[in-house]
Specification:
By secondary structure, the protein is of the alpha+beta class. The chain contains four helices and seven strands, in the order H-H-H-E-E-E-E-E-H-E-E.
């Protein structure tokens, strides 16, 4: 009987060690970022199936996660509407992840001409994770719309006035 009791104790001990390892793993910033991206992917698909993007005729293209970079983790999704092609980058830096808190990311939206795939405009900003939703992406796209009034085409080339260069931020992507 003592042998069975010892075996049960052994199992309980191994179970508690496994629980501690699991808790430590869940505290890992990489794990939290991966879970954030999984949840965000579900939300993005929903935006294009039944949200405002779907209502406006936008079609979701490819979506991919890049978790290999040691410092910055990316979720990139592409879509097009009747006029333009877009790339949206959601970037979470491990340096920005607090001990128990994943609260901010950098979002960059790039707009391309549908036919020539020429980059027309991009905008990026820091966004709180709690505010990262369909409305926030639409707000960033509307900022692109507001600033696109200054675009002109010269012999098929896009010309942007100098005052709009603050929207261009190629430091991260």
């Amino acid at each position: 009987m003592s042998r069975v009791k010892t075996f049960n104790e052994f199992l309980n001990e191994k179970y508690s060690e496994r629980s501690l390892l699991s808790e430590k793993y869940e505290e890992n910033p990489d794990f939290r970022i991966k879970n954030l991206f999984i949840e965000l992917e579900k939300n993005i698909r929903n935006w294009f199936e039944s949200g405002t993007f779907a209502a406006n005729g936008a079609e979701l293209g490819k979506m991919e996660r890049s978790l290999a970079n040691a410092i910055d983790k990316n979720l990139i999704f592409e879509f097009n509407d009747p006029e333009y092609f877009y790339q949206v980058f959601v970037i979470v830096s491990l340096q920005e992840v607090e001990e128990d808190l994943l609260d901010e990311c950098y979002v960059k939206v790039k707009r391309y001409d549908m036919e020539s795939m020429t980059l027309l405009r991009s905008i990026g900003e820091d966004v709180k994770i709690s505010e990262l939703n369909e409305d926030k992406i639409l707000e960033m796209i509307s900022k692109l719309d507001e600033e696109s009034d200054s675009l002109t085409l010269d012999n098929g080339e896009v010309a942007v006035s100098d005052e709009d260069t603050d929207l261009e931020d190629d430091n991260l992507v």
